[in-house]
Amino acid sequence: MKTITKLDSIRLAHHFKKDSINLYYIEKPYGEFSDSIVKIEILENDRITGQVEVPYENIDSIINTLTKVKEKFDSNPKTEDLHDELAADVGGGQ
User: What is the pTM of this model?
Assistant: First the structure.
């Protein structure tokens, strides 16, 4: 029997909207002998607009890649507010 466990719901960068991702751990997603997966749902304005199912055996690879992205981000100078550019007079904040 399929077992679904919601792990987390994470708000995305544009906090003024209801955009987020939901993460689930699913055991036996396709029947008794299927391998576990992690499902990531993408929500825009609280409506599911996409999803991806990742075999549990690939999780370490995804975590390693996200760790590299975080290390690169952490090595760059940043402002106090990550999204200050949204209020800028030029560029993407217009």
Answer: 0.72
